[in-house]
Each structure stands twice: as structure tokens, then as C-alpha cells.
Amino acid sequence: MRRLLLVGEGREYLVEPGEELGTDLGVFEVPAEPTPGEVVESHLGESLRVRALRGPDLFSHFERTGAPMIPRDVGLVIGETGIAVGDRVLDAGTGTGVLAALLARAGAAVVSYERDPEFAAVARENMALGGVADAVDVRTGDLREAADELREGEPFDVLTLDTGDAPSIVPLAPELLVDGGFLAVYSPFVETTREVVAAAREAGLADVRTRETIQREMRFDERGSRPSTAPVGHTGYLTLARSD
Fold first, then answer.
1. Exposed, middle or buried, 43 (CB in 10 Å: 0-12/13-18/19+)?
2. The predicted structure's pLDDT at residue 150
3. 1 pLDDT exceeds 60?
4. What pTM value is reported for the model?
5. What count of other Cβ atoms lies within 10 Å of the Cβ of residue 120?
6. Which residues neighbour 198 within 8 Å (Cβ) at sequence distance 6 or greater?
7. Most CB atoms within 10 A, among 117, 120, 131, 152?
8. Given pLDDT bands bounded at 50, 70 and 90, which one contains residue 92?
């Protein structure tokens, strides 16, 4: 059975079914066959609730090897490209694997390339945690070096890139994508984004456009309502294009 969460009291614990969890609230005996919503009591009489591990939870509980794409930006990728059940996605810059895992949970089959062997190993473990190990093929290596092999296979519906060398991969998109397939490139830096846009245009891709992702959380209290003053609003730039 997949791992799950015990939540409550402002806490959240990732646990295995049947596990014994020791906390300052006492020792919790996690049921061997837990049901979401089930209440579990510690030996001190404190309670936590069973919650199924869902897509957005992976961002918090995956082992990290870098800064992963946050769920709102993954949602933008899915919304802009229409990734759905049965689609084939080629990805480069696996890293922690949040993007690959959430695309797989949306129904896509994902082939993801990660150059660092240790990062790739962690990503495979994260895919198992996310319940998508069968849908995400994490390969150790450079997508560019595998291009000839990939060209011989079935083309992909979407190519996603979250890697600093994305501008050098973009020219491969027309040969790797189906007609009308999407390229989606994410970068926190505008300099890389400018290079990506130039490469996409030079490669003959259509509908090249870039979105900056900015989002502010709202705060509500007795004084009134306003956006949060927290400094982080911008997370990155998403460049989109289509094979034509």
C-alpha cells in the first residue's frame, strides 16, 4: 500500500501503513489498512487524521535534489499544453521529479532525462512514493546525446524542459514532437528565457510566447483584506511553442 499522511494540530507526517510513529504527541500506531479520514489516537490520547497522499503533497514530501517546480507552475504547464491521459511527454532536467510525477498523475507517460546519476536515483525513489513509477521512465543521461535514438521512436506530444541548457535542446523539438505538439520550457531567469525564445524561433516553431508566473496569497483578518506582503510573487518564466 502507498504511503500516506497523518495530519492535525498544524502537523503533517508521511508514514507507512502499519508503521509506529513516535512524536511529542505520543506514539501513533498507523493502521495496516488505513482509510482516508480515519482518526488515529496516540498512547497519550492525542489524535491525528489519515489523509491520502495527493499530487500537491508531493512538493512537500519528495526528497529534494534542488529547487523543484512548484505545483501552480506545473498546473500552468498542464493547462497551456493540454496534457491528458494517453499523451507521451519527453522531459529533461528531472531534478526532484515534481513536474514528471504530476504529469504522470494527469495521465501522461513520461520519459525524463537527468544527467546526475545520484539525482536520477532520488527521482526514481520519488516516483515510487508518488505512485507513478510505472508511468515515469527516469533515464540517467543527456537528452541531446539520446536524440538519435529518440528520433527513431514514436514522437512525443509534449517536450518539457526545466534545465539551464534548455536553449541547446530546443532545436531538437521539431524532430521529436508530433505535428502540433507543444514545447514548454521553464526557467527562473529571463536571460535563459530570451535564449530559449530565440532558439524556438530559429527552429521554426510556431506560436512562441512566454508567460511570467506571479501569484500573491490573500490575507483576511479583523482589520480587512489584502494581498500578502510576503516578498515571493515571481517564480519563473514559462515559454511555450508548437511544432508546425
1. exposed
2. 96
3. no
4. 0.89
5. 20
6. 167
7. 120
8. very high
Q: Give the pLDDT of residue 238.
A: 97
Q: What percent of the chain has pLDDT over 70?
A: 99
Q: Is the pLDDT of residue 49 over 90?
A: yes
**Contacts of 220 by beta carbon, 8 Å cutoff, 6+ apart:** none
Residue 216 CA to residue 120 CA, distance in Å, equals 33
Cα→Cα distances 216→44, 51, 108, 219, 229, Å: 40, 27, 30, 10, 8
Strand ranges inside the chain, DSSP E: 4-8, 11-15, 20-23, 26-29, 39-41, 47-52, 88-92, 109-114, 136-140, 156-161, 177-187, 206-214, 218-221, 224-227, 234-242
Residue type at position 2:
R
Once rounded to an integer, what is the mean pLDDT over residues 208-215? 92
3-state secondary structure of 98: helix
**What domains, with CATH codes, occur in the chain?**
4-52 (3.10.330.20), 57-242 (3.40.50.150)
Q: Are 100 and 167 within 8 A, CB to CB?
A: no
